[in-house]
Amino acid sequence: MSKIITEKTNLHPRNLHKSRYDFDLLCKNDSKLKSFVAINEHNIETIDFSNPEAVKSLNNALLLTYYDIQGWDIPKNYLCPPIPGRADYIHYIADLLAGNNNGIIPEGDEVQGLDIGVGANCIYPLIGNSVYGWSFVGTDIDEKAIRNCSAIIEKNPKLIDDISLQQQTESRFIFKNIMTPEDRFAFTICNPPFHNSKEEATKGSLRKVNNLSDKKNTTPVLNFGGQNAELWCDGGELGFITQMIYESAKYPMQCLWFTTLVSKHSHLSSLYKTLNKVNVAQVKTIDMAQGQKKSRIVAWTFLTETQQKNWKFEIERPIF
To answer: How far apart are CA 282 and CA 299, in angstroms?
Structure first.
């Protein structure tokens, strides 16, 4: 009997993960995943998404199969990102840049992105480089996270010239110490800390695990807990993005599009007011969805329409 793979219509049209996971293919490329795959009550192959080791194994298989990333891994207790959703962000960034390039997605390492909070997983640079050939600077305040990203890059020599890493040594700043007057980033990308405190983050992790599992847990599964910098900061998501907006105003010509994920719709009104205060030239809000979870990207630029048109993308990678 032929296998029917249904499509997830809410993901970006270019997302390689629009269909249900092809576990036959994934297990063929990464045999370790096989031990986590089972048939659910709907007679569909799947994994237990409340099991961090299963999710990590799935991510490794996805990155190997679709992005040719070898030996991906993260340390215990660090966030394990959902790859389809992370890929969506990259594809919407590509569409955003195409709007400044006569409708053509600019490809190649001359297109440079800045990943704020690259984490230990390095997921945005890995996908962005694999799909579009972009180069990245990944920053984080966590030295261990930076070291792990470096280990991933070392296992994939093709990435050494295209992904660089820099630790932010002053945690109260986002762009200071990172951006220089000579920089010309096509975009920034960020998945900001969501919660206001460790206690709030712990409750959120418990809700996530309990939603994914039939069993009710009273202690968070550590791999879904994440590190402090990944999940919470003073002021939570709204405080972090507000700080990012104010800081971005100090580097108006260094970046074409500043962007960030915004999980809470209720934060948009305040963020728009802050963007208006710093006199941005243009704001765009891009809706995203993965399953029942809805999110959005907020993008802003200080460049006028004429300055945006004059921004030059050099497309070096041949398109066949």
So the answer is: 8
